[in-house]
Amino acid sequence: MHTEGMTKMESDPTLLAEVRKYGQFDPNACFQCGSCTVICNLANESVSFPRRIMRYIMFGLRKLTLSSLEPWLCYYCGDCSTRCPRETEPGEAMMTLRRYLTAKYDWTGISALLYKSKLLQIGAILASAVFMIALIVLFHGPFITDRVELNTFAPAHLVHQFDLTVAALVMIILFSNVFRMYWFTMHQSDKVNPLAVIRGVIKNGLGFTMHDGRKVKIPLRLYITQAWQLILHAATQKKFLSCNNKSRWIKHWLIVVGYVIMFSLVVVFLEWFQTDNIYPIYHPQRWVGYFATIVLVYFTAEILMGRIRKREEIHRFSDLTDWMFPGLLLLMTLSGIAVHIFRYLGFPLATYYIYSFHLIVAFSWLVIIVPFGKWTHLLYRSLAVYFQAVKEKAIERATEEQIPEEGVLDHAA
Amino acid sequence: MIELTINGKTDKFPEGKTLLECIERTGIKLPTLCYHKGLTPYGACRLCLVEIAQNNRTTIQSSCTYPATDKLVVNTDTEKVIKTRKVIIEVLLARCPDSKAIQKIAEEHGIKETRFKKRNEDCFLCGLCVRMCQERMGVSAVNFVNRGSERKVSPPFDKTSDVCQTCGACAFICPTERIKLEEVSKNKAVPILHEYNEGLIERPVAFIPYPQAVPNKATIDERYCVHMLKDACGVCKEFCEAEAIDYEQKEKKIELNVGAVILSPGFEIFDAKIKEELGYGYYPNVVTSLEFERILSASGPFAGKVLRPSDKTEPKRIGFIQCVGSRDCERDYCSSVCCMYATKEAIIAKEHVGEDLECDIFFMDMRAFSKGFDEYYQRAKELGVDYIRCRPPTVKEIPETRNIQIEYLADDDMKASREYDLVVLSVGLQPPKSINEISEKFGIELNEFNFCKTSPFKPVESNRKGIYVSGPFTEPKDIPETIMQASGASSKVLSLLKDVKGSLIVPKEYPPEMDVEGQEPRIGVFVCHCGTNIAGVVNVPDVVEYAKTLPNVVYAENNLYTCSNDTQEIIKEKIKEHELNRVVVASCTPRTHEPLFRNTVQEAGLNPYLFEMANIRDQCSWVHMAEPEKASEKSKDLVRMAVAKARLLEPLQKRSVPIIKSALVIGGGFSGMTAALELAAQGFDVHLVEKEKDLGGNLRRVHYLLNGGNPQEELKKIIEQIEKNEKIHLYTEAKIENIEGSIGNFKTTISRKGKSTEFEHGVVIVATGAQEYKPKEYLYGQDDKVITQIELEKRLSKSSEWASVRNRIPKNIVMIQCVGSRDEERPYCSRICCAEAVKNALRIKEISPKTNLYVLFRDIRTYGFRESYYTKARQQNVVFMRYDEDRKPEVSKNGNGLQVEVFDQTLKMPIEISADLVVLSAGIVADEGNETIAKFLKVPLNKEGFFLEAHMKLRPVDFATDGVYLCGLAHSAKAADESIIQAQAAASRATTVLSQDSIELEANISHVIDESCDGCAYCVDPCPYQAITLIEYMKEGVVKKTVDVDETACKGCGCCMATCPKKGIFVKGFKLEQIGAQVNAALEVQ
Fold first, then answer.
1. Chain B residue numbers touching A13 (CB-CB < 8 A)
2. Which of B1055, B882, B981 is nearest to B470 (CA)?
């Protein structure tokens, strides 16, 4: 066999057991027939899943698993699971892999702990809630009971500053994790210590991809010229449209839009949004808020109903994180709406209490779900689409331009 | 009775007939259009006109309406009649120029064009439809309407009829195809689909199921027959001259008292409609493999032309999808035959359509596990059949072209798609639909897959005593396995019923033989179409016409299938009718069909050797497929040669010799012992010879089976039975020194511990077994951490230390498949290794679930129910990794352990596995001693050293040499239950000889002409059968040297005849003059 010089992959038979800690992953007698990949509308001439990634896990190919973008490219329509002649549920396996990868990207290790233990997950939510309750008890303003003065009870600028501080911390964690994702997938390396990174950059520049068993380097130019892909896909999730069930795209997209609007309102424009003035009905502050909350309530409720009914393939399995994400979001929105209603009705105490509850939920969301939970898929999926586009472009360029020998690295890994 | 003079010939006829009926009785054919035997004459077309002379004047009359009265003088061919008839034909041709019926009549009368103005109508107003509907159906859904030039046939008020029963008789009978059933009937006609042709074409209500049906008799489908349903019609009865139609026939219940039952209800194919996503039933160009088999068949819906259903065009690309209804969650078994039948169909389709036809087979594992199958698979690849390893989940139709698009995963693991004109679904085998009823009726248990349950050591027995089973009823299987199991079941019945054996046999009696001595040869030649198998290439009618011109040929004809039952009857009739005393059949090979035709001529009272065959299929239509003209010429040459020889044929008589009613079984392994016990149970003496000290062979090393059962216990039991059976004479540590003689009379010499013994026997069963391959690769023998499966099995046996001490089992075990199999040196599959690996892997997982197991394979061939164990192994996370023959895995030492490197074909990269133990699935290799045994028995070995049976598919336990049978690993690799089946089958086949008191010898054997032989002995050595010995005797006071032929040993090969310088020895039926005549005919020397 002429494999000298080729990248050899070590088989680690414990990988499957490890992945299984993150949810349903049952190759249940998969015989690698390829039905799942053929039926997948998102798999194409340049990217192949779910079979390939199932193979990585079954064969224990740890490094390849870590460097794969495929789990993020799947939007889980469930066709693969329906068509699988062995009923192996590749769709849910991809879901589990997303949890596994999220945990691997997270350097704090908190994601891994939370995914692997329901107890810890609930504990973490409760702990953050307790922390927030303590903060509210300690720092809330005076209760004005003759009229609703929310900004006196919880001055918007204070809440805003707190918001921004927490958001900044969360951002640091998220961005460091994003870098790890980049390193794992674009440098195909599992070592992220500073020395390894310097060595990696010297050797491979800004990353590479494999093509025909050869490395193809990715120049900076491609990262820049392909950046529009990141924005486009983050804003539209248009790959979702390739799935057969198009209504899922619109639901998903509306939730994201609602969420982004709401997030901007409460984190960036809180001082404009949280006011004791009750604006007239035609004021943008009101209808923007109404629109965002309505779509959030409607579609999170629908997701939860779907998961309860389990009628569709994609809802057959539900991890705690799958409940937590829409559940908290719904709770947060509903409590926000309640604050609005009580304030409108002029019930001061009810407004303050429900607002406190709203803050507690929002805080748990911000410190648990966003950096360590399912929220991250917002980030990783968009990035994965972007990275994949960059890789494909690089390969396209390499094959088209027949880039000179020195541009292509030798087989030595 | 009345007297008529027709064309000058006076004859008697029954009263009350029409003239036409009387004329037809004389064999004179008159053209008719409006006449129908089952309807009242109408006299519309006037084509049947004749000239009647009465009272010194002649008149022209239509004979169909003219009553035959006494003393009429009728002429059908006078100038006046012919001239008038021609005018009428021209008139009719002008009325309906497109009618095929009138065109044919016009052509027969030499009329090319009509002189009248063409009216291009589509109705003669012959009234056939009107009369048929009224008289026969009693419905009158159509009738004549209007008068004069407006007259036409129509349902009332030009609307579709309410009373029409949609029988279609009007449309069927119409000579112009004017009547369209949808214009007549309110109801939509439902086509009756031809069951045998898988519904690809329609069939009539009265029909013969298929050309070679047994019995080859027509039947009436009572569900659609108008007579049976409404007591109308009955036309067929009037037409059948043999008066064979009996509408009163009822289903009969027949009670039989039997001692045993063999259940072989077969299988059903999977209903592909269940897999909606594959488009069967929605897209016309998706067909099942059985439909495609019919499409390929000469007697199929398109007469052997490969056409696709949607537009009846020849496909350019065909895709086969494997495992449809096999290997899924509901049917977790492999149907065992689909890989090979798809391969066969692809090859045949390419033969029919041409090399350019693209055939792709979408598969998962190529299961070419039986003898010779892997070579066939390789051949298909060489012929350009493309095998794509992917199971396509769906197909799509392209509406414009009705082509089918298939998406799949290509070699590089990326999605690709191809377009096909036709897609064939390789549907799996299922138990028959009536399986539950059968199981209840017979009180037999079914297994988890709903097939009949059998046990590993009783593979032909149901759970109920006296009920035996065979065929795919017990497990999906191919033809040879089915035949073996059927023979095995009959062996079981033979021993159960040994006391009453033969009591119901009525010996066949032939008519006394005609003496043809001194008669001038009168030769009949019968040329076979064989569907299109011959006629598709060779111009058969031309050959027949040619044969008629040959000297002494008094009769020649062509037949669709000369071997069919009805043609046998025809041949017999013709022998009588034309007083034939020699018969020549030009068809296929004498190897398969000569006995049949000989029997036929014997049944007609001729000596069976007054028959000669010309093989125009194998030697003409097959080998010269691309040159039909030359093939036809060659067919004529062969017929001429056969006729030339036939002229000189002489009657020959068979001799018979007594049979020694005992058997020799060579090999005391599992197969040999089973065969010996079977024969002993049937009451025959058996000499069982084993070279080793202990009985049991390879089974001694098998400790457990995949499907349960305890082999060692079974072995102990069977050895005990052998040892205490009085009929079995056991010789262990024995060596066969010599075997001589032939069927019925063998003499064998064996030596045991220096002593030699001799015994006689009537048959031989070869059960010499085989061995596990001793690997040279993968560090075997260099590192004790590399072992074979059998060595592993020993460590895993109940008594071993591994079974008792849990942690002894290594943590990482790698199994490598196909070691010493499917390579250049041994291109065959060893069949059992995949299941063995799965078996041992499951056993390891059972003892030590934490052990990591890898199986490196090329195709996993767990056929039949073995598949479910493969599933189980995967469910228990045994890792199966595929490798390619060109990139075999590498095993190297790595510290204390081993390192295995395997190149993954899908990921295109090497994967490294650290292993504590490497287990090699070593193949099965033939026994070295086979060569000696083969020489003694004059039987062939294949190139891998296994014994070669008479026919791979149809005669899997016989040799071409009579009286010698084969079973077990000596034939090819197989599992224990399959060895039992084949051993029982061999015993069953041997019984066919041992049950007889004497055997008839072939008459075509060597004969010495004592006067010409001077004893030079040139012929002795060339004889491959050692049938000739030199003898001396006293003749008229001097020593006369001559040779003697052992008639039982002689096969009539003719080597002796060819070496004899004195014309002192010849083969009967192949005399020098006979061959000379053939040669002369071939060279066209007068």
1. 812, 852, 879
2. B981
Residue of A nearest to B408 (CA): A38
The boundaries of the domain holding residue B357 are 268-430
Which residue from B364, B413, B880 is facing A52, i.e. has the nearest CB? B413
Look at chain B and report how many structural domains it folds into: 8
- Is residue A412 predicted with pLDDT exceeding 50? no
Would you state the pLDDT for residue A408? 45
Q: Is residue B246 part of a domain?
A: no
Domain-embedded: residue B210: no
Are the beta carbons of B909 and A28 separated by less than 8 Å? no
**pLDDT of amino acid A67:** 92
CB B480 within 8 Å of CB B956? yes
For residues B62 and B85, give the distance between their C-alpha atoms in angstroms, rounded to a whole number: 10
Yes or no: domain A1-105 corresponds to CATH 3.40.50.720: no
Tell me the pLDDT tens digit for each residue of B363-387.
999 999 999 999 999 999 999 999 9
In a domain, B195, yes or no: no
Which pLDDT tens digit goes with each residue over B137-171? Answer: 999 999 999 888 888 898 888 888 888 999 889 99
CA distances from A202 to A63, A187, B1, B406 (A): 21, 11, 119, 46
Collect all residues with Cβ–Cβ distance below 8 Å to B881 and sequence separation of at least 6: A59, B854, B855, B856, B857, B902, B904, B911
Determine the average pLDDT of the residues in B427-440.
96
Q: B795 and B728 share a domain?
A: no
| Residue-level pLDDT at A321 | 85
What are the pLDDT digits (tens) for B986-1045?
A: 999 999 999 999 988 889 999 999 999 999 999 998 988 778 989 988 888 888 899 999
Answer yes or no: do B854 and A9 touch at CB < 8 A.
Answer: no
**Å between A394 CA and nearest CA of chain B:** 18
Tell if the CB–CB gap between B909 and A27 is shorter than 8 Å: no
- Which residue in B699, B736, B728 sits closest to B715, CA to CA? B699
pTM of the model: 0.85
pLDDT value for B918: 97
Do B830 and B748 share a domain, yes or no?
no
A187 vs chain B: nearest CA distance in angstroms?
Answer: 18
Q: Which of A3, A11, A25, A214 is the best residue to mutate to test the B interface, defined by the most B CB atoms within 10 Å of its own CB?
A: A11
| Residue B698 belongs to domain with CATH number | 3.50.50.60
* Residues of B in Cβ contact (< 8 Å) with A50: none
Instruction: Identify which of B765, B674, B669 has the alpha carbon closest to the alpha carbon of residue B957.
Output: B765
Which CATH number covers residue B56?
A: 3.10.20.740
Predicted-complex ipTM score? 0.90
Whether the pLDDT of residue B689 is over 80: the answer is yes
Look up residue A285 and give its two tokens: 């502050």
From residue A70, give the alpha-carbon distance in Å to each of A21, A66, A94, A97, A345.
Answer: 20, 10, 8, 10, 50
Residues 166-225 of A with CB under 8 A from B: 213
Q: What's B1032's domain CATH number? A: 3.30.70.20
On whether both B818 and B696 belong to a single domain, the answer is no
Q: How many CB atoms lie within 10 A of CB B198?
A: 19
For B:237-296, CB contacts with A below 8 A are 277
User: Could you give the CA distance from residue A169 to residue A156 in angstroms, rounded to a whole number?
Assistant: 20
Same domain, B846 and B859: yes
Question: Do B535 and B643 reside in the same domain of the chain?
Answer: yes
- Best probe of the A interface among B328, B329, B408, B409, by most A CBs < 10 A, is B409
pLDDT-derived band at B933 (thresholds 50, 70, 90) equals: very high
Contact (CB<8Å) A59/B328: no
B466, B500, B534 — which closes off a domain? B500
**pLDDT band of A405, cuts 50, 70, 90:** very low
Per-residue confidence (pLDDT) for residue B304, from 0 to 100:
86
Domain presence at residue B878: yes
Contact B910 A32 (CB under 8 A): no
Taking alpha carbons only, the member of B372, B375, B347 closest to residue B361 is B347
